[in-house]
Amino acid sequence: MKGENHSQHFYSPLRYKDLCYKDRQTVKSVYRYVHGLRFEANYHEATLPQRDVGGVIRTLYRGGLIAYKGGQIEKEFLDNLGLPSVNLEDWLSESRFALV
After folding, report:
1. 71 in a domain, yes or no?
2. Is residue 97 one of the residues assigned to a domain?
3. Spatial separation of the C-alpha atoms in residues 25 and 70, rounded to whole Å
4. Is residue 66 included in any domain, yes or no?
5. Residue 4 DSSP class
6. Largest alpha-carbon pair distance within the chain?
7. Got the DSSP string for 27-50?
């Protein structure tokens, strides 16, 4: 990996078929109405194990601020890596108030 990447998929040890009904419905709703990202990558896509997420982010990081969309887990993960980040949901709501 040379520090440039447009998309990287990570696989989870938890499979979609192993989710309870309620969680599968949540996954479907988030896929359809929030971000359109699949729970599991297509079979032909190269994936890495989730344990490699931190290493990939560190490799690709070139300075600046990392933006993420909501989520305490994402915030804590980036904080633990020592990388500056901003929650887009917070930033957008603050920006709206600044424009009024």
Report:
1. yes
2. yes
3. 20
4. yes
5. -
6. 48
7. HHHHIIIII---SS--TTS-EEEG
Q: CA–CA separation, 61 vs 17, rounded Å? A: 34
Whether 12 and 49 share a structural domain: yes
Summarize pLDDT for 24-83 with one digit per residue, the tens.
Answer: 999 999 888 887 778 888 777 778 898 999 999 998 899 999 988 878 999 999 999 999
What does pTM read for this prediction?
0.64
Distance CA 97, CA 99 (A): 5
What is the domain range of residue 85? 61-100
Number of domains the chain contains: 2
Place of tokens 């040890």: 13
55-64 contact pairs (CB < 8 A, 24+): 56/1, 56/5, 56/8, 57/81, 57/83, 59/1, 59/3, 60/1, 60/3, 60/4, 60/5, 62/3
What pLDDT band is residue 96 in, cutting at 50, 70 and 90? low
